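Q: Hi! First time doing this. I have a protein sequence and I read that you can turn it into a structure. Is that right? Here it is:
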Amino acid sequence: MRYARLFNKVRICRHGLMVFNPNDAYVGRSLDLYGEFTEAEIELLGRIAEDGAVVVDVGACIGTHTIPLARAVGPTGTVYAFEPQRLLFQTLCANLALNSITNVFAHQAALGDQPGVLFAQSVDPRCHTNFAGLSLRSSSPGEPMSVITLDGLELERLHLVKIDVEGMEHTVIEGAVKMIARCRPVLYVENDRNDRSDELIACIARQGYRMFWHTPMLYNPENFMKCEENVFGEIAALNLLCLPEDGRWVPEDFADVEGFSPEPVRVPRTRIRQPRAKEIRVPTPIGPMRFSLPTTEDDDEETSP
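A: Yes, that's right. Below is the predicted 3D structure, encoded as C-alpha cells:
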C-alpha cells in the first residue's frame, strides 16, 4: 500500500505534546523552532481565565491557546473551541487527545452573525503557507462548513471570549450581542486588518466596552526551545483587550485605543509589524496581578457551566 508523503510532526512543547504542520508559516514554524506560539498572548489570557471559568476560543486553529486555557480553568471550568477548517480541526482534536484534555468541547464550525454555510478553500498541506490565515468564502468552490452564532449556544455563564478569525471578528461579536450583554465577558480580539479596524472597534464600543492594545512579538527570546534565532523579525500580533465599561478595574499600563495608534506596517499573511511604542504590559504593583471575573446574578446560584 502506498501512503501519501507525511507532513505532520509531533513535538514536546511548552504546553504539552503538539501535533503540527511545519509547513505552516507561523503557527507550525513557531512550534517547530521555539516549542510555543505567541506565548505573551497565552500568558495574558491565563491570568484572565481563572479556575472554574467558561471560555470560548473562536478560531482555535490546532489548539495552541485552547490547551493552556483548558488547564487554566481547571476541571470545574470549560472551554468551547471552534475551528472550521477540517485539517486544522482534526489536528486540534489530536492535540486535545494527546494531552488528555477532557474539559474542552471542540466543534468544526465557524461563528458569525447568523447561521449559514461558508466555504474554505482547499490547500495542499505539503505546501508552505499560512494555513491559519485562510479566509472563508461565501460561495464555492471549497469545503462547506456550518456557521452558528455565539448567542445560539445559550451558555449560562461566560467569562472570556478569544476571537481570531481573519478579518471576520466583527461578525462573531454581532452574533453574540445578547450573551455579551448578559454575561459581560472579557473579549480578546485580533484586529490586524487595516480596512476593517474601524468597523471592529465601533462594533465593540457599541457593546459598552473599553479597548486596549496588546501587540506581542511573535518571537519570544525566552522561548521553550531556547532558540536564539529570530525568524520572525519585527512581526507582531495586533490584538484588542476589551473590558466592560462597568467593570471593577482598568489596566493602568495598557495603551487605550483612543489614546494610542500603533500605525502598523502591513506584512504578508495577516501579521503586523511591531510599533515603536512604550511597552504594553500588565502591571504587577502587588504581586502577580489577577483579573476579576465578571459575574452575573446567575453565578451566585450556578456551580458548574
